[in-house]
Design goal:
alpha/beta; Arc Repressor Mutant, subunit A; Nucleotidyltransferase, domain 5; 5-stranded mixed sheet; 40% helix; globular; binds zinc ion
Length: 395
């Protein structure tokens, strides 16, 4: 077991669960060897994990001459989590298994502007219907992961003043869900959960920068294998970093030439409209790029270059192995990333860029749901949470 020394307290059931989930131990003998626990102590803890449905026993084919040892495996279908990635115009609702794999999902037909109470009240029957359709018992729900655009107060699970979400500031979201589903609810920023999903999709990569370019611009930072939220949950909020060669466009934050007013989807819609194109949303920008419209290609490349200018500093600072680009504008990937690469390679140190991969997100279109699932799974399947659940007489 990682970091375990002979002087620490005896391994708990939750710690044994982690060994099994991570594939570090599979038989009772291996668990005994990894933890130093007696056979009886291992058996007692394993029995509790089996009863809770967190692990299951698989008897393999008989080895030549010997009795096959029963192997314990993580029971991914031994429960579910609910995922609710909330967007300004679109919110998804999903049921996932305990690995974050989507079992069933649907899209809500309400924008976030209806307010948190109404939106979540509308999400609950959708989740109920998905559970019924999938035949998933409500008693198996272990938690709910929610994401919203903008900075989140992790303690209360509320939005910290997101201009895109009027009426959501300071409203604690977990109580709106836990009244109906009495399980842990975790809330995080939409780009952070996308970073969690991309991190899970990149095994072996511990340092990753996830950049979302949609109506707005934001980044999620995974460093040393962990999502970095920063002191106040605002790590990766790069949208209001000014660029050096902008035309002097004022931003709502009071600064001039912030990345968000020059390189976001909304900025491209504005600039292409000014150039006489019939564009109403990010989708129209992508269509023009795909048609090879020279102004659209040039403007997207410039946006990429400005994005790269800000990312270059981040690359120098945290030395990621992968910069993954996601969000709606990824549909215009080629000119966007050409600009990003140009700026990063010019402005970052060679040591930080020689093996740097700049790639489209592997989880494109799915990262919100999967990331919300991982957000809450990381908490409810952590050893301490498993131990707490096992010691609860009602569970
Ligand atoms: Zn700004």
């Amino acid at each position: 077991m990682r970091g375990r020394t002979p002087t620490t307290a005896p391994a708990t059931a939750g710690e044994i669960f982690r060994l099994v989930r991570d594939g570090e131990a599979g038989t009772r003998t291996e668990i005994g060897r990894a933890t130093g626990l007696s056979r009886t102590a291992v058996a007692a803890r394993v029995d509790r994990l089996l009863a809770e449905g967190l692990v299951t026993e698989v008897v393999g084919a008989a080895a030549t001459g010997g009795r096959p040892a029963a192997r314990l495996v993580f029971h991914a279908t031994g429960g579910t989590v609910l995922a609710l990635p909330i967007g300004v115009s679109r919110t998804k609702a999903a049921i996932c298994d305990l690995t974050g794999e989507v079992i069933a999902e649907d899209v809500l037909d309400q924008p976030a502007s209806v307010g948190p109470e109404k939106l979540i009240a509308a999400a609950i029957p959708v989740l109920e219907r998905l559970l019924a359709t999938a035949g998933a018992a409500e008693s198996g729900i272990r938690g709910i992961g929610v994401s919203i655009p903008g900075t989140v107060d992790g303690g209360s699970g509320s939005s910290i003043g997101v201009p895109a979400l009027p009426g959501w500031e300071g409203v604690s979201l977990p109580p709106l869900l836990s009244g109906r589903f009495p399980v842990p609810v975790r809330v995080d920023n939409d780009v952070n959960v996308m970073a969690l999903a991309e991190h899970a999709a990149h095994p072996g990569v511990d340092d990753l920068l996830m950049v979302k370019v949609s109506t707005g611009v934001g980044a999620g930072v995974v460093s040393g294998g962990r999502l970095q939220r920063g002191a106040w949950g605002a790590a990766g909020e790069i949208g209001h970093t000014p660029v050096h060669d902008g035309p002097g466009v004022g931003c709502g934050c009071g600064n001039v030439d912030c990345l968000e007013v020059l390189a976001s989807g909304a900025a491209l819609v504005r600039d292409l409209s000014a150039a006489g194109r019939d564009v109403h949303g990010v989708g129209d920008v992508i269509t023009l790029v795909k048609q090879g419209d020279p102004d659209a290609v040039r403007l997207v490349r410039t946006a990429g270059r400005r994005l790269g200018e800000v990312l270059a500093a981040a690359v120098n600072l945290i030395n990621p192995a992968v910069v993954t680009i996601g969000g709606d504008l990824v549909g215009a990937y080629d000119p966007l990333v050409a600009g990003v690469r140009e700026a990063i390679y010019r402005q970052s140190m060679a040591a930080a860029t020689q093996d740097l991969r700049i790639e489209p997100g592997l989880m494109s279109g799915r990262s919100g749901v999967t990331g919300c699932a991982i957000l809450v799974l990381d908490e409810v399947l952590a050893p301490a949470s498993v131990d707490a659940a096992l010691s609860d007489p009602d569970v």
